[in-house]
Design goal:
Blueprint (H helix, E strand, L loop, with lengths): L3 E3 L21 H11 L3 E5 H22 L4 E7 L6 H21 L3 E4 L10 H17 L3 E4 L10 H11 L4 E6 H6 L4 H5 L6 E6 L10 H7 L11 H10 L6 E3 L4 H4 L3 H16 L1
Parallel strand pairs: 1-2, 1-8, 2-3, 3-4, 4-5, 5-6, 6-7, 7-8
Helix pairs in contact: 1-11, 2-3, 4-5
């Protein structure tokens, strides 16, 4: 096992994807030190928090902070609109350039990218070509791309996401396999175990209720639980991922109202302890 990685939301505090301002109220140093104290050796950083930290510390300062706290795996997120054109593409390209530049400067392991949140019609060939281009740019920056399917979007299941990765054929592009989304889409564990190892860029652990509560989006960003505190087959998921030959870090992504209310040190410790127990 190549350690545990605290996703950006696990240490972000009182914020989230459902907020207009997604920036963490906690300084980056506080978050990184809390994650390290809990046992994490990887750290996730949101684009908006990256900009703040770059202004405060500069890229060398961020790199030194991560190194000093034993963070050997860095995850950057999130990029949407990489397939688009017009104004949407212009805005996405600005974010793309910043993320790729940061990934190279900070030696990031991967960058998370997502599907179309508006769930518009899409063309597989176009998306595969754009994903291949993005992945090639990532390789030039010394990093990889992790594509995460989301149940309420155009690429809503593992089968579609895996088909995109296969069609793109990009060595530096693969999947983000998050147990939350595989459970919510009733993905067979056999489908996860059958994934080619080179098609997986990142993996995430968490837990949740047996059934959806509210909308997919609301449930996703407000009701995740630490591993072992819900109804997910966390053990089965871990075994399925290991069956692919996975040896990379295990991300821990817990977005919940409860975790947001915790002091950052408590949130990091809770997340780490639950995932470490599940992996053991």
């Amino acid at each position: 096992m190549d350690g545990l990685l605290a996703s950006c939301w696990t240490t972000a505090g009182d914020t989230g994807p459902h907020r207009a301002d997604q920036r963490s109220p906690w300084p980056l140093r506080t978050r990184v030190e809390a994650a390290a104290a809990a046992g994490f050796t990887g750290f996730g950083l949101l684009y908006e928090d990256l900009l703040t930290a770059a202004d405060d510390l500069g890229m060398p300062g961020i790199r030194a902070l991560l190194d000093d706290n034993g963070m050997t795996n860095l995850e950057l997120e999130m990029l949407h609109g990489w397939w688009a054109d017009g104004t949407e593409r212009q805005e996405s390209d600005l974010r793309r350039r910043t993320l790729l530049t940061a990934a190279e400067a900070l030696n990031a392991r991967h960058i998370k990218v997502g599907p179309d949140l508006a769930n518009r019609p899409w063309d597989m060939d176009h998306w595969a070509a754009e994903f291949a281009t993005l992945s090639a740019q990532a390789a030039d920056a010394g990093t990889r791309i992790a594509f995460e399917f989301l149940p309420w979007t155009n690429i809503h299941c593992l089968d579609l996401a895996a088909s995109l990765i296969q069609a793109a054929g990009a060595p530096a592009g693969g999947l983000m396999v998050d147990i939350w989304h595989t459970e919510r889409t009733h993905t067979p564990l056999s489908a996860i175990a059958a994934l080619p190892p080179h098609h997986i860029t990142a993996v995430e652990l968490n837990d949740g209720s047996a059934t959806l509560v509210g909308t997919h989006f609301e449930d996703t960003v407000r009701r995740r639980r630490p591993c072992g505190e819900g109804a997910f087959d966390v053990s089965g998921f871990i075994k399925a991922v290991r069956a692919t030959g996975w040896t990379g870090p295990w991300g821990v992504e817990i977005l919940s109202d409860e975790l947001r209310r915790m002091p950052v040190a408590e949130a990091a410790t809770t997340a780490y302890a639950s995932a470490a127990k599940a992996l053991a």
